[in-house]
Design brief:
By secondary structure, this protein is α/β, with parallel strands linked by helices. Helix content is about 40%, strand content about 15%.
């Protein structure tokens, strides 16, 4: 049994895949398997994967039809034999000490989730021009393992599942998997991490955070090419709200931080659709207006207006979108 199963969902990632695979191959931690799920890539991704797999017996390639990133991740998780799961993006790369140090924390704590910050760089910038996620500046994170009610701000952070380890038995025992969408598409799949992130954080009995970044994530600006694509983020938001209901979450601090993430995703969609960044619902396509109003109606107005976790911008944005207040 391997200690870590690294899941690498791949679709037309040939431009960056060599660097990603090289950073995995150079890890100081050696007891892992790499499961690459290729969703019928039309570029040279499969060729690159096969080149690396011929040199490294730890690499397994699963060829599959294009059923979306969520399905690709789930295929990898279901095939994994490791004690812990790590999800990696094929456009990203890692410090060579990442798995060694995260696994040490995992074994020392026996935590369900081990998470670290990361560096991000944009599509057009030099990789030396990086910014670091500074989560520890926004909330007091417990020094050792914790449950989410002790640090609910984690729910409002970027819901990337990279730079993390997940205990596989934890995922299996709680039947946690990714949302499966209709086909691999960068815009459609942009938010599938969010329900997985929220559900794992809410369910975990032990979460451990280290403030040392090991991961380098390529941040891509959200752009819509098909009018149907702007609906998908709202699908993910509704799934998150269903998770709150399913888990019977009553803690107002937890709910407030989930709301922060929901309002952030909504504003991202508005900004992508409105070049003036006015965040005015009346400038949105009619179907977006309907979906945004439905979601805003589902949020607890008392929590929005009274929680110390909700800032002034979020409160104003909510009240602008609130259908009871729209004239």
């Amino acid at each position: 049994m391997k200690k870590i199963s690294i899941i690498l969902p791949v679709y037309n990632a040939g431009k960056n895949l060599n660097e990603c695979l090289k950073s995995i191959n150079e890890q100081t931690f050696k007891d892992f398997e790499l499961i690459c799920t290729d969703s019928a890539s039309s570029d040279n991704s499969l060729e690159i994967l096969e080149k690396f797999s011929k040199k490294d017996s730890r690499i397994r390639i699963i060829n599959k039809i294009n059923e979306g990133k969520g399905h690709a991740c789930n295929t990898g998780i279901n095939a994994a034999e490791g004690e812990y799961i790590s999800i990696i993006e094929p456009c990203d790369f890692m410090n060579k000490k990442m798995f060694e140090n995260l696994y040490k924390l995992a074994k020392k704590s026996e935590a369900d989730i081990i998470k670290s910050p990361y560096y991000k760089f944009s599509n057009n910038s030099d990789k030396k021009n990086q910014s670091r996620t500074e989560w520890s500046k926004y909330c007091k994170i417990p020094n050792w393992f914790f449950r989410i009610n002790e640090c609910p701000s984690f729910l409002s952070f970027h819901p990337g599942v990279f730079a993390s380890l997940y205990k596989k038995s934890f995922l299996n025992n709680n039947s946690i998997r990714f949302v499966e969408t209709r086909g691999y598409n960068s815009r459609v799949d942009s938010f599938i991490d969010m329900p997985f992130y929220i559900e794992t954080m809410l369910t975990a009995g032990k979460i451990v955070y280290t403030d040392i970044p090991y991961y380098y994530h390529k941040s891509v600006r959200l752009e819509f090419q098909d009018p149907k694509e702007y609906i998908f983020p709202f699908d993910r938001i509704e799934e998150v709200l269903q998770i709150l209901i399913k888990q019977k979450i009553k803690d107002k601090n937890i709910i407030a931080n989930v709301y922060k993430r929901i309002l952030k995703i909504t504003s991202i969609v508005f900004e992508a659709l409105d070049s003036e960044n006015s965040l005015d619902i009346k400038n949105m396509p009619y179907e977006i207006q309907l979906r945004a109003e439905k979601i805003i109606s589902a949020l607890d107005e008392d929590i929005i207006n009274n929680s110390l976790f909700i800032d002034d911008f979020e409160r104003r944005f909510f009240n602008i979108l609130n259908p009871d207040k729209i004239i």
